[in-house]
TrEMBL record:
Its main location: plastid. This is Rieske domain-containing protein. Pfam families: PaO, Rieske. Residues 21-31 have a biased composition (Low complexity). Keywords: 2Fe-2S, Chloroplast, Iron, Iron-sulfur, Metal-binding, Oxidoreductase, Plastid, Transit peptide. The keyword Iron-sulfur applies. InterPro entries: ARHD_Rieske_2Fe_2S, Cholesterol_7-desaturase, PaO, Rieske_2Fe-2S, Rieske_2Fe-2S_sf. Residues 63-163 form the Rieske domain. One of its GO terms (molecular function) is iron ion binding. It comes from Vitis rotundifolia. It is found in: Plastid, Chloroplast. Residues 11-34 are annotated as: Disordered.
Length: 380
């Protein structure tokens, strides 16, 4: 990457600290320098505190991955919550996925308690059946009425099921979340977590906490660097960590992609991912289920050891490792959430290694304001 720079917010803070240290002992000079320092100190630009506010409708106008294709069989369904609304995903007669409100139009019974019959989801209460567009096509024991429940645009691409929960017309294309060329997918895991999705994204976009938090898993034995930096283009939502050989990207609206250079599992190697012989690629999708819950989709890929794909029960071992790492984070993020609900600002004092998390928050604020041009992206 060329022209790697720090955020202006953090540059100003560092400049102010430097100026304050080098001020003269002369009273007049000290006063002038102090005035300059005050002018340079950044205004607090992030305030994430208090009860989580209702999600802004503009945040819904994106494609959101909600499930892995392998989890959605022809005769199964997947109930999800998205932006505090209940939905259920299933496949129609043509095999294509659909997403309808998880509430029967008759007596409000949750549809996921029923079954899928010939591409229709059947309510377990009185047998009403709905197609993927939400139309009721069967009403046993009574005359068929013209009834329809709400459905969402739903597509399948590259092994994932996507929905568009917003009121704006959906965009024609979906972002690609495939691992880089040469990688093979080894694990796809879904977890329901008791934290707001923004707090989880904050955590995933931060690597500086690893040698303090993940002391029993992947960062066991890591030394604490004297300086941790995240280097990124001035207008980007991606970059790389220094001194760690890890590339990372926030992909709107709720995805984090990272590539980690390793010499063997649990060990870092080299100063950049390009210097490493083997790599692990991760995808984290943080679906906003509600103001206190996140549906996490995790995909792990490797560019080595393809034989691991053929070892029986290996997926259970991958899940064990993933949950162990995540639990190290969760106890802290849940604690943050508790403090936030009591009024604490979880972004009270950002420093240089918080750059990517800060940019995510500024991007999200811009979306909710309805800015025509979103920061750090090419969107207009």
């Amino acid at each position: 990457m060329e022209e790697l720079v720090n955020d202006r917010l953090l540059q100003d803070r560092n400049t102010a600290d430097s100026n304050q240290t080098s001020t003269s002992t002369s009273p007049s000079t000290s006063t002038a320098s102090l005035d300059m320092v005050k002018r340079k100190l950044p205004q607090k630009s992030l305030n994430v505190s208090g009860p989580v506010q209702p999600y802004h409708p503009r945040l819904k106008n994106f494609w959101y991955p909600v499930a892995f294709s392998t989890d959605l069989k022809d005769d199964t369904m997947i109930p999800i919550d998205c932006f505090e609304e209940p939905w259920v995903v299933f496949r129609g007669k043509d095999g294509k996925p659909g997403c309808v409100r998880n509430t029967c139009a008759h007596r409000a019974c949750p549809l996921h308690l029923g079954s899928v019959n010939e591409g229709r989801i059947q309510c377990p209460y009185h047998g009403w059946e709905y197609s993927t567009d939400g139309k009721c096509e069967k009403m046993p024991s009574t005359r068929l009425l013209n009834v329809k429940i709400k459905s969402l645009p739903c597509l399948e691409q590259e092994g994932m099921i996507w929905i568009w929960p917003g009121s704006d017309p959906p965009t024609a294309t979906l972002p690609s979340l495939q691992p880089p060329p040469g990688f093979q997918i080894h694990a796809e895991i879904v977890m329901e977590l008791p934290v707001e999705h923004g707090l989880l994204l904050d955590n995933l976009l931060d690597l500086a906490h690893a040698p303090f938090t993940h002391t029993s898993t992947f960062a066991k034995g890591w030394s604490v660097p004297s300086l941790v930096k995240f280097l990124t283009p001035a207008s980007g939502l991606q970059g790389y960590w220094d001194p760690y050989p890890i590339d990372m990207e926030f992909r709107p609206p709720c995805m984090v992609l990272s590539t980690i250079g390793i010499s063997k599992p649990g060990k870092l190697e080299g100063q950049s991912t390009k210097q490493c012989a083997t790599h692990l690629h991760q995808l984290h999708v943080c679906l906003p289920s509600s103001r206190g819950k996140t549906r996490l989709l995790y995909r792990m890929s490797l560019d080595f050891a393809p034989v691991l794909q053929h070892i029986p029960f290996m997926q259970y071992l991958w899940r064990y490792f993933a949950e162990k790492v995540l639990n190290e984070d969760l106890r802290l993020v849940v604690g943050q959430q508790d403090r936030m609900l009591m009024g604490a600002n979880v972004w009270n004092c950002p420093v240089s290694y918080d750059k990517l998390g800060v940019r995510y928050r500024l991007w999200r604020d811009a979306v909710e304001r309805g800015d025509k041009r979103l920061p750090f992206t090419e969107s207009t």
